[in-house]
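Long-time lurker, first post. I've been practising inverse folding by hand and with some scripts of my own, and I keep getting stuck on stretches where the structure tokens seem ambiguous. Below is the full token string for one chain I'm working on. Before anyone asks, I'm not after the true native sequence, just a reasonable design that respects the backbone. If someone could post their per-position residues I'd love to compare against what I wrote down in my notebook.
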């Protein structure tokens, strides 16, 4: 199986062909490389509603079913993934705690 061409879009950051999927676990949107990859750790399936669904391959179900194809989440190969929010923008909040001169 392969993604249908109408599902394929380009990553806004690196221009690589990707497909947007919904995770079967919690319905979140996740970009997956459009090119199937035998070493991938997720399986994508074309839902009956025309939406692509992605699930993680687990030890219990390590192989994609005949209707699925194996792929790689694009976040793991994108050369410029979205910045993490926790990294801080380099601006430090000045602390209000200041050593007060001890004078009396
Ligand atoms: Zn990308």
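-- Answer (accepted) --
I ran through it position by position. Result:
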């Amino acid at each position: 199986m392969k993604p249908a061409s109408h599902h394929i879009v380009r990553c806004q950051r690196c221009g690589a062909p990707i497909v947007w999927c919904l995770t079967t676990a919690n319905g979140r949107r996740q970009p997956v490389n459009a090119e199937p990859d035998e070493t991938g750790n997720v399986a994508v399936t074309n839902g009956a509603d025309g939406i692509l669904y992605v699930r993680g391959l687990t030890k219990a179900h390590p192989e994609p079913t005949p209707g699925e194809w194996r792929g790689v989440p694009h976040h793991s190969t994108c050369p410029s993934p979205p910045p993490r929010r926790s990294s801080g923008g380099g601006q430090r909040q000045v602390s209000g705690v200041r050593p007060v001169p001890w004078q009396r």
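A couple of notes from the structure itself: The pocket of zinc ion is lined by residues 11, 13-14, 16, 74, 78 (CB under 6 Å). The mean pLDDT is 87. Happy to go over any region you disagree with.
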